[in-house]
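Sample entry as discussed:
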Amino acid sequence: MFGMKPNTYCMLLHLSQLLMFVLPVLGIAAPIVLWAINRDKDAQVDLHGKMILNWLLSAFIYSVVGVVLAFVLVGFVVILAVVIASIVFPIVGGVKANDGIFWKYPLCITFIQ
C-alpha cells in the first residue's frame, strides 16, 4: 500500500474521486486502480473500494436520470445534487476512513458486495 497505513490508504481512495473535477477520467480510474491493486492485501481497503465503486455507479445512474429529466427542467436539480454529493461524500468518507470508520454513502445503491 505504498508504505501507508490502511486508514491513510482508504482516505486516499475516497479523496481520489475528487480528481473527477480536474480530469473526469482520472476521477473514475484512480479509485478503481488503487482499489484493484490492494484489495487482496487488506480487508478494509476492499470494503472501502467496493463502497466507492458502488457510489461511482450510483452517481452515474443518477446523472443519466438527471439528464433525461432535464427536458422537463427537474433534472437540473438532480444533476446539481449529484455534483454536490460527489464532492461532499468523498470528503466525509475520507475523513471517516482516516479515523478507521467505515461510512456507507447515503443514496448509494449496492451493486458489489
The chain has a mean pLDDT of 95. The chain has one domain: 6-98.
